[in-house]
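Researcher: Quick one. two chains, 787 residues in total.
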Amino acid sequence: MGNEAIAYGAIEAGVQVAAAYPGTPSSEVLSTLAGLAREKGFYAEWSVNEKVALEVAAGAAYAGARSLAAMKQVGLNVASDPLMSLAYIGVKGGLVLVVADDPGPHSSQTEQDTRLFARFAKLPVLDPATPREALEMTKYAFDLSEKLLLPVILRPTTRTCHACQDVEIQDGNASLQPISGFQRSPNWVIFPNLSARKHVWLNGQQEVARDSFESSPFNQLTINKQSDVGIIACGVSYNYVMEALQLTGLAASVLKIGTPYPLPAGPVLKLLQHAKKILVIEEQEPVVEDQVIALAWKNRYTTQISGKNDNHSPREGEFNVNKVRSILESFYGRQPEQAATFTAPELPLRTPVLCAGCSHRASFYILKEAARGKDTLFAGDIGCYTLGAMAPLYTTDTCLCMGASVSIAAGLSRVEPHRKQVAFLGDSTFFHSGIPGLINAVHNGANITLIILDNSTTAMTGHQSHPGLNRTAMGPTDRSIDIARMAEACGVEFVRVADPFDLKTAMQVAKEALAFDGPSVVVMQRACVAQMKKGRRRRINPDLCTGCGACVDELGCPAIGKPAGSPEILDNCFGCGFCDQVCPVGAIEEV
Amino acid sequence: MKLDIVISGVGGQGSVLASRALAGAGMGLGLDVRTSEIIGMAQREGSVTSQVRIGEQLFGATIPDHEADILLGFELAETIRALPKLKPGGVIIASSSAIVPVSVQLGISSYDREAMRRYLREQPGKVVLLDLDELAKSAGNIKTGNVIILGALSTLPGLPFEPEQLQQAVLNLIPEKLQNTNKRAFEVGRRAMEVA
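Model:
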């Protein structure tokens, strides 16, 4: 897998400290590193958020260690504050920042293009087309970082991160270079006069990076003397371009770009000399295209340059061979092949749902019931529990970004005091960025109820550790931070812990929390089903069932259906027993 | 040599394991392999598609539309959803059983099994529908549907690997205590093709 290849690349480069916050499609970079950390003799951690991860990596790099931070594109927003300053301060040991982009998007709030962020931060960025290239680029990125004294961004996209390829790895232990140690210097302290000087240096480093990329093997020009068309293909798009050319039989010179910023001039100028028309194929933003246009203008080339700016290719969505093929065909003025029409029977809507036995379902049900008859808004957050927005729970009215639920609820409470504002937050998200919002709500006296859905894991991204657990990325620990006590320490007067599968008690607690004047917190505690043993399966006693359908319509559990008209509990029942308590006539019982 | 296989199913059915086993078998022959999956929100009960490419001189990991040689369907409706990937006349080996999504139970959408089975049987290539639930029960573990379909696949002519090589690639990914169950599941899949 591409993410594993990046991890092995880092190990081969002698990484000494690695830190990350999980997020699809980036998570496997650190989970792979963590799994090998003890054996290979380096340090790996799941940090509470991306800003912290980058700062941990930066600290290690200040002392001369090779370090890596990993996150997804929206995570980079959280880390942007240290990133921008770090570009001015620079590093001593190589620092590679892996930021996985998710064009599509498959599992993200945005489709933002990290290459633009790299340009904004004035940092070089590498864009691997395949897992094999991702491994090579990671090793190269460490060397480049030490040469430039700057962090280097490796920006794979989903189809590199989650693609698998046969990749050769070195099995032995990497030779960890001796760490030179932190040396005191005013150059590590970002005062304005230092920034003013370092900004000039940083701008100069853009040209050094550009020169380094001139001879990079990650940029390859193949001239086709028979064709006056040039295609510039970036990252994974290179694969789509090559396959589309093969399928259509179209001829072109192709410049593969693996170093989108700063773009080296040499290979582009060679292509400009040869081609009469150039088409730039890159996902998301016209990062390379804009640089090619500037380069052509500066060098007085009148070559036609196409791509995003003249609407030949879209700025939204993920590419694939078919999309690239039709972009190519229209560029060459060819009639695209008619796609076969698809007259299948109607297919069911199949969206992801909370698992059978997931305690979040119970928590949402309880809050919905506890708020019945009251005008209540539910602010949601990022995690499995975002699925609370789906039918039939409908308990997520807003969702913005990690940790925002509590502050959004507080903001709403200022202008809609007649409504009760409820915020939901997961345990990992609480540590990630929920705590400042909670402290703010307490300090400013926001009348909100925060429900912390504590399932003792970071479930959505693959069960990574967080500070509330007695394990770290590298193994067990006896240090865990109690969420309820943390909320009390934030100054919340009403803090209760409840088991969402104890409907009666949890409902009572929820009602008290909603009635409390001022910020209140309920920690709904129940481990994630993916990490639990199954309970006793349930069945519906047909003699007692009135067929009211509450178990199906209120819960939306994938283990309760009506295959033959009346409700039935299916094979995938997890045995959580929550439906027993919801059934108004007590018709659900243990098998 | 080029073999493009699409695997479609529902999160939790083991399509990732199946794609890794196919890739492992391909690698054992010294061929280039690529696989691609989208993981994340589709992990649980959502639609999942895996793609496997085995051959020489491969580019990307995703198969263009209408180019896959074989479609392995772990669930009835999801098999149809993935059909645009299959080349005209391509081979389909699929489960005839349904995993009915919550949306159907809630009355938001519908699921017509008979219409779907009929539609699949009308496809131009070789189409084999297996009662995967029953076969998995006979193998002794309801979760072995993925391995049964790989067993069924292994009977097709023209594959680059021998059945034993694919079976070994599967077993390489399976914990010790489940080896026998999965060996059995692979054989159940092979036998099902003799009957089908």
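The mean pLDDT of chain A is 96.
Researcher: Thanks, that's what I needed.
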